[in-house]
Design brief:
heterodimer, A: alpha/beta, six-stranded mixed beta sheet, four-stranded antiparallel beta sheet, 11 helices, 14 strands, B: mainly alpha, 13 helices, 83% helix, globular
Chain lengths: 321, 258
């Protein structure tokens, strides 16, 4: 549905993005991750036909966005990073304008406006002036604008920025409900959001694609094994020895001991078979009483930092585009 | 066509949603009312004095239509220098500042449709302003028999000159995201082209002729006298075409730069 081939964009001498390629299949939600200034918005702006790339090609719905921009733009609903609202208009008039610009008219247009107003929870503010709305409502108006005319491709640049936690969950649910019928690219730097909605992620950094794949793939790749947290009450050295003796366990680390005699270990094992039953057995055989046994997932934050590099945060921010 | 109309409609509506349209219309009516009444009073004073001196009167051409409305048309062209930049400054600058430019440029629209839509909206606003001044010849017609042909030529001139000013302002607005800067550039360009005429006085003959030809204010003169000179019409229409072309390029540049 969306295909990006070797996309490069220079702003004068400053490099925006370099040789970016990826594709998004129909019905998929792609998370677009990267620190500020990595080139997320630049890529999205090229996809929407807002600006032409310096080189490379982008296809949306089978249309080359440089060659046939109007056809490609007809398939796209776009929410830019800076919410594009006319503050002097009412919500209704604004959505009406957007719907008309997207070629809708008459009864269809009104039905579709009602649909997005309902979907984005704008019912109570429909006749108010956008300039008087709170940030959360404005963000929802922006999203409603992107959803009008039910475009098959949605490109959302930080759709949940500026919302409170309850609203974030609502918007996430809304985006998730669009899955299947819509192909969605979503940029964000809120990592739990990616975990919650995206099928696949593309991580870009300094204008290049660093990593691409499903979240599970990325996790496995970085981890190179399974991490299991074991807590038990018993003698430390006995427990440690016993745990280390379990087959396929690579290392056992003591994390801390608490006053009531509970010891916590971090066990690293080979990938593949579940070693948890064996670990439980090992604890009991060492005379310990098991209190906790959890297989840990490496959080996306860690993946992100590993890929982007922890030193990144001290770097100066690039062109935020 | 439909897209152009939709852009124009929204643009025109936003003139009236914000105070701009009302402030401009109010200032416009007050200033021109002042000029018109001045011109009217002046004319009646001169004609009363000349009634006592018929021999001197023969030397003057005191047809009321051109003697009263002529100065009004001339002063309109000066007032436009100040008002048009205020009218056009927001056309693109505000969209850029608000980020709505990104919305417009990602709609399935051609750049030309956006440009023409905005130009027509400004032109409609301008027509509303001109329509208001039509009370002056109407008032005049109560007292004298108005030469409607001369009035028509004057209005054609004012319309063409205003549209040329608008296209200059539109182009200037497409250059920047700052409305004040857009207005100042437009004002400087218009004022500059207006005073080329005065500069011509001290220039060598060949250059003087050129300067007079490209001085925008001069092209109104024959319209005011009731003459529709194709040279003037073509000049003013060409200013429109040139500025719209430049604005189109400027939009393309804006896209490339991102």
């Amino acid at each position: 549905m969306i295909q990006v081939e070797a996309l490069t964009k220079y702003y004068g001498n400053i490099q925006g993005i370099q040789n970016i390629s990826f594709q998004v299949n129909k019905g998929e939600i792609l998370g677009f991750l990267g620190p500020n200034g990595a080139g997320k918005s630049t890529t999205m702006r090229i996809l929407t036909g807002y600006m032409p790339p310096t080189s490379g090609k982008a296809f949306v719905g089978g249309f080359d966005v440089s060659e046939k921009p109007l056809e490609a733009q007809k398939c796209i609903g776009y929410l830019p990073e800076n919410n594009p609202l006319y503050p002097e208009m009412t919500v209704k008039a604004y959505l009406d304008f957007v719907a008309s610009m997207k070629g809708m008219r008459g009864v269809n247009k009104n039905l579709d406006i009602d649909r997005v107003v309902g979907g984005c929870g704008l019912g109570s503010v429909v006749s108010r002036i956008i300039g008087h709305l709170s940030k959360g409502f404005r963000q929802r108006v922006g999203l409603a604008q992107a959803l009008i005319n039910d475009p098959p491709v949605l490109i959302l640049d930080e759709p949940t920025s500026g919302l409170d936690p309850a609203q974030i969950i609502e918007i996430r649910e809304l985006i998730r409900s669009l899955k299947g019928n819509h192909t969605i690219i979503l940029s964000t730097h809120i990592l739990p959001e990616v975990n919650a909605i995206c099928d696949r992620v593309v991580i870009i950094h300094q204008g290049r694609v660093k990593e691409e794949g499903s979240i599970d793939d990325l996790t496995a790749q970085i981890q190179g094994g399974e991490v299991i947290r074991v807590s038990a009450i018993g003698a430390l050295d006995l427990l440690e020895k016993s745990l280390a003796g379990v087959p396929r366990v690579r290392s056992v680390k003591v994390q801390d001991t608490s006053a009531n005699g509970e010891v916590r270990f971090e066990v690293l094992s080979d990938e593949g078979e579940d070693v948890r039953p064996d670990l439980a057995l090992a604890v009991t055989s060492a005379g310990g009483r098991l209190t906790e046994l959890v297989q840990e997932r490496i959080p996306l934050e860690k993946i992100f930092v590993d890929i982007v590099g922890a030193d990144h945060w001290s770097e100066k921010e690039g062109v935020d585009a | 066509m439909r897209n152009i109309w939709l852009i124009s409609k929204r643009e025109l509506a936003s003139f009236f949603f914000s105070p701009i349209a009302y402030v401009i219309l109010a200032a416009w009516s007050v200033i021109l009312g002042f000029f018109y009444s001045g011109s009217f009073v002046n004319y009646s004073l001169i004609s009363m004095q000349l009634m006592r001196n018929p021999r001197a009167a023969a030397q003057y051409n005191l047809t009321p239509t051109s003697a009263i409305l002529g100065p009004v048309f001339s002063s309109i062209s000066v007032v436009l220098l100040f008002i048009i930049p205020l009218l056009t400054m927001r056309l693109f600058s505000e969209e850029k500042k608000q980020g709505t430019m990104e919305l417009l440029l990602t709609f399935p629209l051609r750049d030309g449709e956006i440009l023409i839509g905005k130009y027509l909206a400004a032109l409609m606003m301008y027509l509303i302003m001109i329509a208001g001044t039509f009370v002056y010849p109407l008032i005049l017609s109560v007292f004298v028999s108005v030469e409607w042909g001369v009035v028509g030529a004057g209005y054609l001139g004012i319309f063409l000159m205003g549209s040329a000013f608008l296209s200059v302002g539109l182009f200037c607005s497409s250059l920047t995201s700052n409305q004040i800067v857009a207005a100042v550039i437009a004002f400087m360009v218009l004022l500059g082209s207006f005073i080329l005429d005065f500069v011509a006085v001290s220039a060598s003959p060949a250059i003087a002729t050129l300067l007079r030809h490209i001085s925008i204010g001069i092209h109104l003169r024959s319209f005011i006298q009731g003459i529709i000179d194709t040279r003037d019409v073509i000049f003013l229409v060409n200013v429109n075409i040139l500025c719209l072309f430049l604005a189109m390029r400027s939009l393309e540049y804006y896209r490339w730069r991102g």
